[in-house]
Structures are given as structure tokens and as C-alpha cells.
Design goal:
This protein is mostly beta strands. The protein contains five helices and 14 strands. It is globular and about 65 Å long. Bound molecules: flavin mononucleotide. The site of flavin mononucleotide has 17 residues, from strand 3, strand 5 and helix 2.
């Protein structure tokens, strides 16, 4: 099959797009509102987009509290959503009234960050403390306003020592959650390594 996203002519019961760009990491974004209350919500339009310096992005479909708070306070934190925290992560996506604190409503403990004011999810094995940089307003080709790309620089990184083994982060212990399409999520399957090829590894392969 082939379809045109603007026409949504896929003739399937549900939009398949998000199942095609999967798995997506989940940034569990904490911010502070104007009153200092803690806001927390998951974003799967999320990724590390640069290494030196480390920079992350999340994309807000409509102007939501995480974007508004990050812009207003200049800070946000991305905690790693894991299998153990899947229920709390999902609950924190509920559309609660602006100003209400998801961690308080859920009863989820938060822990102080070191380089920014928003706290991290205490039970999460890793968190990226971020300074807000800028928002890129995404538009359709016809110029219609669409989503907002919120960009930040990572100023501090928390890792629970319990997931560090032999000097490396053991993701099999952390069990990060990934977002798929529909209402589907996944954890990691088999983990394997591949060495980066050198130019000579290609020599003679197509003779
Ligand atoms: C796993 C998961 C991923 C999500 N990813 C996004 C996303 O990338 N962008 C978005 O706008 N909403 C996303 N949502 C929905 C938001 O979490 C939800 O709208 C939330 O209420 C926003 O909270 P906020 O207003 O406190 O930022 C996601 C929800 C879940 C459960």
C-alpha cells in the first residue's frame, strides 16, 4: 500500500504512521510552573540530537504545560521511563488542569537535580538536566502552524550507580520503555554489538 498523510487515505482503522517510526525513546519531562509546582509528562517525540555539547529535543503537539514551563523558566529535566515505572509514566500523561502537579497526584517521589531547579523522577535510573535553548515552531508546507520543537542543552546527567556494571550502563538492568504505534510500548529485546567498519571492510564486497 501507499498513502498520502495529508489525505489520511490509508483506509486502515488506525493511523499507521507512529508504528513505522518505532521504537521511540520516551523523555519523561519535568518542569516547574510559575508557582514552583512540579509538572511531569511523557514525550515520545523526544531524542538526543547532538553529542558535543549534548542537546535534546521534545516536540509538543499543541502548546502544552511542559513547553510553556520550559520556555518560562528556562529549564527542564528528562527522566528515563522504565518498565518498572510504566504505570506512573502513563498516568502522568493524563490531561490534568494546568497548575496541578502530576507527581503529587500520582504519589510519585521526585529527587532534586543538581544543575537545574526541576527535580528528576527519584526511581528513574537516569535523568538529563537541561537548560532550555529555543523553540522551533514547526509549520506545514502551506505555512499552517503545527507542533513546537523544544530544544535544550544537557547541563547535568544523573545515573543510578546500580545500573553501571563494569564501567558501562547496563540497559538490560534499566529496562527503558519505548513507544511504538497505537497504544503499544516495548522494552529492549536482544542487545548485540557491532564494530564500526573501516573503508577496507568494503573492498571487494561487490566483485
Ligand atoms: C508515551 C507517551 C508519549 C507521548 N508523547 C507526546 C509527544 O511527543 N508530544 C506531545 O505533545 N504529547 C505527547 N504525549 C501526550 C502528553 O504526555 C500529554 O498531552 C500530557 O498531558 C502533556 O502534559 P503537559 O501539558 O503537562 O506537558 C505522550 C503521551 C504518552 C503516554
Amino acid at each position: 500500500m501507499h498513502y498520502t498523510p495529508s489525505l489520511a487515505d490509508h483506509h486502515l482503522p488506525h493511523d499507521p504512521l507512529l508504528a513505522l517510526v518505532a521504537p521511540r525513546p520516551i523523555g519523561w519531562i519535568s518542569t516547574l510552573n510559575a508557582e514552583g509546582g512540579v509538572n511531569l509528562a511523557p514525550y515520545s517525540f523526544f531524542n538526543l540530537v547532538a553529542y558535543h555539547p549534548p542537546q535534546v529535543m521534545f516536540s509538543s503537539t499543541g502548546r502544552k504545560d511542559s513547553q510553556a514551563n520550559a520556555e518560562a523558566t528556562g529549564e527542564f529535566v528528562c527522566s528515563l521511563a522504565t518498565w518498572d515505572l510504566r504505570e506512573a509514566m502513563n498516568l502522568s500523561s493524563a490531561p490534568v488542569e494546568r497548575g496541578l502537579s502530576e507527581p503529587e497526584l500520582i504519589g510519585l517521589a521526585m529527587a532534586p537535580s543538581r544543575t537545574v531547579r526541576p527535580p528528576r523522577v527519584a526511581a528513574s535510573p537516569a535523568a538529563l538536566e537541561c537548560r532550555y535553548w529555543r523553540t522551533v515552531e514547526l509549520k506545514s508546507m502551506e505555512g499552517r502552524p503545527a507542533s513546537s520543537l523544544v530544544l535544550g542543552e544537557v547541563t547535568g546527567i544523573y545515573i543510578d550507580d546500580a545500573v553501571i556494571e563494569g564501567g558501562r550502563v547496563n540497559l538490560a538492568l534499566a529496562r527503558p520503555l519505548a513507544r511504538l504505534g497505537y497504544m503499544e510500548f516495548a522494552t529492549l529485546g536482544e542487545i548485540f554489538s557491532m564494530a564500526r567498519p573501516a573503508a577496507q571492510d568494503l573492498a571487494g564486497r561487490n566483485e
